[in-house]
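Can't paste images in this forum, so I'm doing it all in text. The chain is below; anyone willing to post the predicted structure tokens underneath?
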Amino acid sequence: YTSFTCMIIPFMLGFGAVWFFPGFFDYTPDRKLVYALFFGIAMAVSALPVITRILMDLNLFKTKIGMIIIAAAIFDDLTGWLLFSFVLSMMGQEGDITNIWFTIGMIIGFGLFMLIIGRWVINHVLPWIQKNLSWPGGVLSISLGFCFLGAAFTEYIGLHAILGAFIVGIALGDSVHLQEREREIIHQFVTNVFAPLFFVSIGLKVNFIANFDWQLVTLVVFLACICKVFGASLGAYMGGLTKREALAVGFGLNARGAMEIILGTLALSAGLIDEKMFVALVVMALLTSMISGPLMKKFLD
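Text version of the structure:
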């Protein structure tokens, strides 16, 4: 229940907010549909890396509640990025339905390929690398190589590179041959090298002070929290959890983190949203990530 409700309810409420109350949002009339779809996706996604870290800090990662949250977050991310690729295709193909569905078919095919055949290849390549190449450079190099190939493919078919890297990362991270120490090295490398560059690029892209609209920020933060917490809590309660446990699940899945910021960055680059909406999404991503852990702890104590 949780995986479904924490995705569909925020998506529908976000879509409906734009569709029925257009006065609160700034978009061109001819892009009402794609804007509403994007905002629904923005309300629905979660940040799996942030959620995982919060669960580990609270010693909930291997508990029943932790597994429910992780499963729902994975479903959210996969579904959200697939829907977002559809939105980008709608914009890039200028309404050409044939090309749109071709692009969607390509990305679904690529995802299935990586999660079935790609995973098999990775599980056979990693042991050979660990045995014959220097550690940890060999594993780090091949991991980055796979991600760059996936990124190049999705960029080639007209979608953003981040989607390909994300799919490859899922296939790679699921490998039983990737040791915990190697996972940590990859995580530290990405966190200390790529992440700072990413956030610097965000800071250079937008003037946050000039584009800070407190009314829009308040609206986005309010909608994001209400939509996600209600949707996730409802599903968890229907699944048999108590009210307090269900609310803890809701606030756990409310963390948006870098996933929301990346989503906003791509939408801004594509010309789908303006700087004010981007700033609102960034603030929402930071605030929801900050309150997620403490509120989870409060409802579980």
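Residues 2-300 form a domain with the Na+/H+ antiporter like fold fold (CATH 1.20.1530.20). The chain has a mean pLDDT of 84.
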